[in-house]
């Protein structure tokens, strides 16, 4: 162990994703002295206003971007983390049958190397020991989430290779790559059952049914990070995204005492490791901390 400060990079598609996926984990590591950098691939310009109390945002994509920059700054402050914009434009969630084409110039239409180059550069500059992102499905089928996975996967594997992205800084190979798995069916079922058992009305029955109907294959969580002491910070970060989060909606529907008792962890899937480790783990830095790897 050289005593070098540990560094965690959490790569997300839109502003607000860092607050709904692995947020308490980042707040916990930041509070414990880890240098945590949230990377946001797009400006969230094509997000709809999802909070019925918010009103409207004027000014098109630029107007929405400006609002979300403010929201993101508040969320990063709530989590105690640093944040970096990768600078791509939100692709929007295509709806309809047939699906409309994606808008010109958006993140999901970029060639992989073009979209990955700024992230490779940032990995080489920040030198994270651990990188988190989404699984290959994106976690849910938003084109920016799938692209976020592809870009983070590419950067994780290419940043250490001096022959690739040659004009983008000195090579650095992160030691572990994880996928976020906060919305597992197992978690939502446990919450649903506990909420019903406590005599409350659960909003998750329909969610569970539709998830089962879509037959999304469940991926396996390997890493269960205890972070319940940081759920309040996570909630504050979510509320900071005022255009995106309905304070009476889905995210706040779980009574906090039930969540603390039933599910005091956030889950991740270890996708790659360059250090020896044994799953299940309870620490993203297992195999790195105190081993001389950092
Ligand atoms: Zn998103």
Automatic annotation (TrEMBL):
Reactions that this protein is recorded to catalyse: mycothiol S-conjugate + H2O = an N-acetyl-L-cysteine-S-conjugate + 1D-myo-inositol 2-amino-2-deoxy-alpha-D-glucopyranoside
Entry cofactors: Zn(2+)
Keywords per UniProt: Hydrolase, Metal-binding, Zinc
Cofactor note: Binds 1 zinc ion per subunit.
Enzyme Commission number(s) of this protein: 3.5.1.115
Organism superkingdom: Bacteria
Chain positions recorded as Zn(2+) binding sites: 14, 17, 145
This protein's record includes keyword Hydrolase: yes
InterPro entries (UniProt xref): GlcNAc_PI_deacetylase-related, LmbE-like_dom_sf, Mca
Molecular function terms from GO: hydrolase activity, acting on carbon-nitrogen (but not peptide) bonds, in linear amides; zinc ion binding
Keyword Zinc appears in the UniProt entry: yes
A Pfam family this chain is assigned to: PIG-L
Enzyme class at the top of the EC tree: hydrolase
Gene Ontology BP, a term: mycothiol-dependent detoxification
Oligomer and partners: Monomer.
The family this protein is said to belong to: Belongs to the MshB deacetylase family. Mca subfamily.
Role, per record: A mycothiol (MSH, N-acetylcysteinyl-glucosaminyl-inositol) S-conjugate amidase, it recycles conjugated MSH to the N-acetyl cysteine conjugate (AcCys S-conjugate, a mercapturic acid) and the MSH precursor. Involved in MSH-dependent detoxification of a number of alkylating agents and antibiotics.
Full protein name: Mycothiol S-conjugate amidase
Source species of the chain: Cellulomonas biazotea
């Amino acid at each position: 162990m050289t005593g070098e400060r540990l560094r965690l990079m959490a790569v997300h598609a839109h502003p607000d994703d860092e607050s709904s996926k692995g947020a308490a984990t980042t707040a916990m590591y930041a509070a414990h002295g880890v240098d945590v950098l949230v990377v946001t691939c797009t400006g969230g310009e094509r997000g709809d206003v999802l909070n019925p109390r918010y009103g409207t945002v004027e000014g098109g994509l630029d107007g929405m971007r400006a609002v979300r920059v403010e929201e993101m700054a508040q969320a990063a402050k709530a989590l105690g983390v640093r944040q970096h914009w990768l600078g791509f434009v939100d692709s929007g969630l295509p709806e309809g049958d047939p699906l409309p084409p994606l808008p010109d110039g958006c993140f999901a239409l970029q060639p992989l190397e073009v979209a990955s180059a700024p992230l490779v550069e940032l990995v080489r500059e920040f030198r994270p020991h651990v990188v988190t992102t989404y699984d290959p499905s994106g976690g849910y089928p938003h084109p920016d989430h799938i692209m976020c996975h592809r870009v983070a996967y590419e950067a994780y594997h290419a940043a250490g290779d001096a022959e690739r992205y040659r004009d983008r800084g000195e090579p650095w190979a992160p030691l572990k790559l994880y996928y976020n798995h906060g919305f597992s069916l197992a978690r939502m079922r446990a919450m649903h059952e506990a909420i019903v058992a406590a005599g409350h009305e659960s909003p998750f029955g329909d969610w569970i049914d539709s998830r089962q109907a879509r037959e999304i294959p469940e991926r396996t969580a390997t890493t269960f990070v205890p972070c319940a002491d940081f759920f309040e910070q996570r909630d504050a970060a979510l509320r900071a995204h005022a255009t995106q989060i309905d304070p009476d909606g889905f995210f706040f529907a779980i009574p906090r005492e039930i969540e603390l008792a039933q599910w005091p962890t956030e889950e991740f899937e270890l996708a790659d490791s360059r250090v020896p480790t044994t799953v299940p783990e309870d620490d993203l830095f297992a195999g790195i901390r105190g081993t001389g790897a950092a």
